[in-house]
């Protein structure tokens, strides 16, 4: 297997780091990246080949990892260069019909939505393939994204906008909550180091517990919440502030933005 990443930014870095820590070698990976400093960073960190020109020869898979705003230009430049490669796109919002049109009618396409914990093999990726993608190609897409975490196939492309809003953007929501908890811990007299350790281990522990359990999350929460105790008092404050509604609103805003990106760039010919 040989893969060419087009775009070598945050997400490509997370995926490449994850693949190399698995059973991939640097010689199986090439990165096309316009920014010279980014190319140097990738070569220095991972030892992968990098190039400015959009070369895809010798690769059986191409992974498009540029921003949605850059995808039309990248796909237009790639049109006609593809032979039989499987093309994976991870761009938020960009729909496969539009991408196929920009690629001159190329249909071997899978839309994926991974997340940055891929770097530490704790990613999760939603996938949707066009009907023209073969079983072997679907397995290949799953092997690549599955090397860096869990995978979930969707049977309707529009659900990728929901995946984007939940798990694509999700690590940022979690870090936001962690930052807030860390600041609160510091304000109560704990040192920065103590606060960070307590916060990170609490998230990791709670997530591990949730992963191992089949119970509803509310049941796990109930087990922390002693009657008349501290948690009950804290959760009452969160409920009073309607934090649950705010989270739902934030996720809906991300979902709307994903659809909006699709609409905005879908107009391009
Ligand atoms: N970050 C995340 O958590 C996630 C991101 N995604 C998706 O992944 C994609 C990439 O996101 P992210 O990694 O954060 O973005 P970045 O901006 O970090 O990475 C994109 C890189 O591609 C480079 N680039 C731009 N044009 C070209 C070109 N023509 N050829 C080659 N390289 C080019 C950019 O250079 P320059 O900066 O100079 O433009 C940049 O270095 C986006 O579409 C995003 O929606 C999906 C899941 C999660
Ligand atoms: O913020 C974004 O648009 C990208 C997609 C999901 C995570 N980062």
From TrEMBL:
Binding locations of NADP(+): 6-11, 65-68
Leading EC class: oxidoreductase
Signal peptide bounds: none
InterPro entries (UniProt xref): 6-PGluconate_DH-like_C_sf (IPR008927), NAD(P)-bd_dom_sf (IPR036291), P5C_Rdtase_cat_N (IPR028939), P5CR-like_CS (IPR053790), P5CR_dimer (IPR029036), Pyrroline-COOH_reductase (IPR000304)
Catalytic activity: L-proline + NADP(+) = (S)-1-pyrroline-5-carboxylate + NADPH + 2 H(+); L-proline + NAD(+) = (S)-1-pyrroline-5-carboxylate + NADH + 2 H(+)
Gene Ontology CC terms: cytoplasm
Keyword Nucleus: no
Record-linked Pfam families: F420_oxidored, P5CR_dimer
GO biological process, one term: L-proline biosynthetic process
Pathway membership, UniProt: Amino-acid biosynthesis; L-proline biosynthesis; L-proline from L-glutamate 5-semialdehyde: step 1/1
Keywords carried by this UniProt record: Amino-acid biosynthesis, Cytoplasm, NADP, Oxidoreductase, Proline biosynthesis
Primary location recorded for the protein, binned into one broad class: cytoplasm
Entry function: Catalyzes the reduction of 1-pyrroline-5-carboxylate (PCA) to L-proline.
HAMAP family hit by this protein: P5C_reductase
UniProt protein name: Pyrroline-5-carboxylate reductase
Primary gene name: proC
């Amino acid at each position: 297997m040989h893969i060419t990443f087009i775009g070598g930014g945050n997400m490509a870095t997370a995926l490449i780091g994850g693949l190399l820590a698995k059973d991939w070698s640097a010689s199986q990976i090439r990165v096309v990246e316009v920014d010279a400093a980014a190319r140097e960073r990738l070569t220095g960190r991972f030892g992968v080949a990098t190039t400015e020109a959009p070369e895809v020869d010798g690769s059986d898979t191409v992974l498009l990892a540029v921003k949605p705003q850059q995808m039309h230009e990248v796909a237009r430049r790639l049109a006609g260069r593809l032979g039989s490669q499987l093309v994976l796109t991870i761009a938020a919002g960009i729909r496969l019909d539009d991408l196929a049109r920009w690629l001159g009618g190329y249909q071997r396409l899978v839309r994926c939505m991974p997340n940055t914990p891929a770097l530490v093999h704790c990613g999760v990726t939603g996938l949707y393939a066009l009907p023209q993608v073969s079983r072997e190609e679907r397995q290949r897409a799953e092997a690549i994204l599955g090397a860096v975490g869990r995978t979930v196939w969707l049977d309707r492309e529009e659900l990728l906008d929901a995946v984007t809003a939940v798990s694509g953007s999700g690590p940022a929501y979690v870090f936001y909550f962690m930052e807030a908890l860390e600041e609160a811990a510091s304000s109560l007299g704990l040192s920065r180091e103590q606060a960070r350790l307590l916060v990170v281990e609490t998230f990791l522990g709670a997530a591990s517990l949730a992963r191992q359990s089949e119970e509803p999350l509310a049941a796990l929460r109930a087990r922390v919440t002693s009657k008349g105790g501290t948690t009950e008092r804290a959760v009452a404050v969160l409920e009073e502030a309607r934090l649950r509604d705010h989270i739902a609103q934030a996720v809906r805003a991300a979902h709307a933005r994903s659809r909006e990106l699709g609409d905005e760039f879908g107009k391009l010919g």
